[in-house]
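re: ur question from earlier - yeah i can do the single chain one, its not a big deal. heres the input i used so u can compare w yours
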Amino acid sequence: MEKPKEVAQQWAQLIESSVIEQAGRFVVPIQERKFEFTQGKANHLIKLDFSGADDELKNQTITIGDSELDFE
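and the output i got, formated as tokens:
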């Protein structure tokens, strides 16, 4: 997205969290999980990374249009 900091701030406000800047990424913590927003050409969601996937989804990538869901 073109303005990751601003989008991260909107999400943080929505879920009553905060924004932490880490090496050019803007992180919004959600309990033991987090949203990470990075600079890019697309101005919409292009990738979601899920950690802790069960065996059926582990190491799988699902593509929907130009977006990806990665399960780790």
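The two ends are 23 Å apart (CA to CA). not sure if urs matches, ping me
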